[in-house]
Design brief:
Number of strands of chain A: 0
Strand content of chain B: 15-25%
Structural class of chain A: mainly alpha
Number of domains of chain B: 2
Radius of gyration of chain B: 21 Å
Strand content of chain A: under 5%
CATH architecture of the largest domain in chain B: 3-Layer(aba) Sandwich
CATH topology of the largest domain in chain A: MetI-like fold
CATH architecture of the largest domain in chain A: Orthogonal Bundle
Helix content of chain B: 25-40%
Number of domains of chain A: 2
CATH class of the largest domain in chain A: Mainly Alpha
Oligomer: heterodimer
Radius of gyration of chain A: 24 Å
Largest sheet of chain B: 8 strands, mixed
CATH topology of the largest domain in chain B: Rossmann fold
Shape of chain B: globular
Strand order of the largest sheet of chain B: 6-7-8-3-9-10-12-11
CATH superfamily of the largest domain in chain B: P-loop containing nucleotide triphosphate hydrolases
Order of helices and strands of chain A: HHHHHHHHHHHHH
CATH class of the largest domain in chain B: Alpha Beta
Number of helices of chain B: 10
Distance between the termini of chain A: 10 Å
Number of strands of chain B: 12
Chain lengths: 326, 382
């Protein structure tokens, strides 16, 4: 157990270093892009003095090194700066959208994982039948179909024709919120979440499904599966307790890798479903050279990916007793 | 149904695997087990010997109904106390398993699930048949101490145990419900020699302290000689000779058994070179007509390569050989190394080694090798 805490502490320390590097990289990246923030949103007819004043207000007239140090020290205090466009703290601009995106991503990964594990196990069990061939093809088709297409198909069937789900957005118009929590903890939210999460989930389905299938095909040839059967266990016990349980491990690894890509997919899904997430915000902020907002988005996304990776590693260690924490 | 009072009776069992697509030729099934009959009484110990690829493992998997997908029982019955295991409904089969028929599998290393504690895995076998989680866990600890491990080992995961300890756990698991028959499939193969001896001692000790039958599958005839009262020798999917162990190895009546005996060093006996049987086992997808051993047999007659040998009964022994009546004379000749010098016998030329993957790569099978068996490092002339 002590080894575990040491491991966790080391991983968190590594995360801090990584975040620092990420923050520095993001800072430089935006300063390298040609064009300056003022020209994007300030009146063309602005005087040079007014222009200089605005630049001074945001600290953009200082040397780059000074800006960088200021930026880092602000970050350490949790201050992500003030948005050039909105004049509000960047974190406030991004905050709610960030949660909307993270929840959408988590839901889509959950769908991909659950369907992938179940489907992969099923396909392995159906080895050599037409069902297996069909399942593999379906997974690959879903992987190849762009999400804006599959999203629209789902919308036209389940939202437009059947009217089971709303056409888009994150909550019903005119809904009264009694607390901040209710934004994300309500049936209405889940109702809106379902279709976009399914779209992104089906897109990410292929990797866990195919990895699960291959891993399962290896595991069911193991002696301990045969022994489990010889013990007189019921078939479902052999499958779930022994075969699926052991096949899960490589899938966890794949999921950890997928987290980074999932963010990218989610951005497109947000557009199709008018999901008020980070995706659109990032595009707008980059275009407007709204450094604080863009920087905040990227840092939060980076931190999220790192967190999910850490969680996947911890989960792996929990599921495989052979893992030693050190 | 039950013609005899036997516990287990295998009648003319044939198990085929789908053959690999032959180069140009037709798809022929691999006849892993091709007409095996044997009987086992209560409290009887039977050794099943034969080289790799002779069908031992397939035979016992068929008996336990654990054949891999694709394997097909082409004919025969496996009677357990008079009921055919092969056609038993799954529910009834499941109840019979472990309570009546337990298994110690081929490699200790892989027969334990890596993600569960060994105590839980023993308890799982008990719980599949009797309720009571707490009692099952207590039993697991007791069973571990019966096989010479500390009960606290129950909380260990398989990777925390050595190979020998894992095999002890497998034995503890096998005796958990005091089954009427334990099938041990090469239980010592993966272990080093010293641990092998310990594990064999363990099995022997447990056998003498409990009632119940044992089938010990091995390619090591010295293990059988130590452990089993009866022995059945398999060659190319058939049993060529079976009877009392002492009698079979003392006075083998089948030329293959004679060759097998020659190919084994005797530790206590005189120093002599090893003599091996020339040639290779036949391709199980394309076995020779008549006696399977005829192409390699130094005594083969024209009839051997034509007709299946009849099963001759000599006292308590069964021998599948055309020349069984002449066994005494053959045995004298078989002890001379020159008898086994490679020649083209009357039964036809020595079969070439089967193409890779023909009979091999079935569970437990390896690419068949010369009859010196796996442990002799190649034969020598004496």
């Amino acid at each position: 157990m002590r080894g575990f805490w040491r491991y966790l502490a080391r991983r968190l320390a590594q995360a801090v270093v990584t975040l620092f590097l990420l923050a520095s990289l993001i800072f430089l990246l935006f300063r390298l892009v040609p064009g300056d923030p003022v020209s994007m949103y300030v009146d063309v007819g602005m005087t040079q003095e007014a222009r200089a004043m605005v630049l001074h207000q945001f600290g953009l007239d200082r040397p780059l090194g000074e800006q960088y140090l200021l930026y880092l020290s602000n970050l350490l205090r949790g201050n992500f700066g003030v948005s050039f466009q909105y004049g509000k703290p960047a974190l406030q601009v991004v905050g709610e959208r960030f949660w909307a995106t993270v929840l959408l991503m988590a839901a889509s990964l959950l769908i991909a994982f659950v369907l992938g594990v179940a489907g992969g196990a099923f396909l392995a069990w159906q080895r050599g039948t037409w069902l297996e061939a069909l399942g593999t093809v379906v997974a690959l088709v879903l992987r190849s179909a762009p999400v804006f297409w599959s999203g629209m198909i789902l919308l036209s069937i389940f939202a437009f024709k059947l009217k089971w789900f709303p056409l888009g957005g994150i909550r019903a118009t005119g809904l009264e919120l009694h607390s901040q929590w209710e934004k994300f903890l309500s049936w209405d939210f889940l109702h809106h979440l379902f279709l976009p999460a399914l779209t992104a989930g089906l897109y990410s389905l292929a990797s866990p499904l195919l990895v699960m299938r291959t891993s399962m095909l290896d595991v069911i040839r193991e002696d301990f599966i045969e022994l489990a059967r010889a013990k007189g266990l019921k078939e479902y016990q052999v499958v779930f307790r022994h075969a699926v349980r052991n096949s899960l491990l490589p899938v966890i690894t794949v999921m950890a890798v997928m987290v980074g890509f999932a963010i990218g997919g989610v951005v497109l899904v947000e557009t199709v479903f008018r999901w008020p997430g980070l995706g659109r915000e990032i595009v707008m902020a980059v275009r407007a050279r709204d450094y604080p907002v863009a920087q905040t988005c990227f840092i939060l996304i980076g931190a999220t990916v790192m967190l999910f990776n850490l969680l996947a590693d911890l989960l792996y260690g929990y599921l495989d007793p052979r893992v030693v924490w050190d | 149904m039950a013609e005899t009072g036997a516990l287990l009776e295998v009648q003319d069992l044939k198990v085929y695997y789908p053959g690999a697509a032959d180069r140009g030729g037709p798809r022929r099934p691999v006849r892993a087990v091709d007409g095996v009959s044997l009987a086992l009484g209560e409290d009887e110990t039977l050794g099943l010997v034969g080289e790799s690829g002779s069908g031992k493992t397939t035979l016992i998997k068929a008996v336990l109904r654990l054949l891999p997908a694709g394997a097909q029982v082409a004919s025969g019955r496996v009677l357990w106390r008079g009921r055919d295991l092969l056609t038993l409904p799954r529910r009834e089969l499941r109840r019979l398993r472990w309570r009546e028929l337990a298994l110690i599998s081929q490699s200790a290393m892989n027969s334990l699930d890596p993600v569960y504690r060994v105590g839980a895995q023993i308890a799982e076998a008990i719980l599949a048949h009797e309720p009571g989680r707490h009692r099952a866990q207590k039993r697991a600890g007791e069973l571990l101490s019966r096989v010479g491990l500390q009960p606290s080992r129950a909380r260990d995961y398989p990777h925390q145990l050595s190979g020998g300890m894992k095999q002890r756990v497998a034995i503890a698991m096998a005796i958990a419900l005091d089954p009427a028959l334990i099938v041990a499939d090469e239980p010592t193969t993966a272990l080093d020699v010293i641990v092998q001896a310990q594990i064999l001692d363990e099995i022997l000790r447990l056998l003498s302290s409990r009632r119940g039958s044992l089938i010990l599958v091995t390619h090591d005839i010295s293990v059988v000689a130590q452990t089993c009262r009866r022995v059945a020798v398999m060659y190319a999917g058939r049993i060529v000779e079976q009877g009392e162990t002492a009698e079979v190895f003392e006075r083998p009546a089948h030329p293959y058994t004679m060759g097998l005996k020659n190919a084994f060093p005797s530790i206590s006996g005189e120093r002599r070179g090893l003599v091996y049987v020339p040639g290779f086992p036949p391709d199980p997808a394309d076995p020779p007509p008549g006696c399977r051993f005829a192409p390699r047999c130094p005594f083969s007659q024209p009839a051997c390569g034509r007709d299946d040998p009849p099963t001759a009964v000599l006292g308590g022994r069964q021998v599948a050989c055309h020349l069984a009546d002449d066994a005494d004379r053959l045995r004298r000749k078989a002890s001379e190394p020159s008898t086994w010098r490679l020649r083209a016998p009357a039964g036809g030329p020595v079969a070439p080694p089967p193409p890779e993957g023909a009979g091999a790569r079935r569970p437990g099978a390896q690419v068949p090798r010369a009859a010196g068996l796996d442990r002799t490092g190649g034969g020598m002339w004496g």
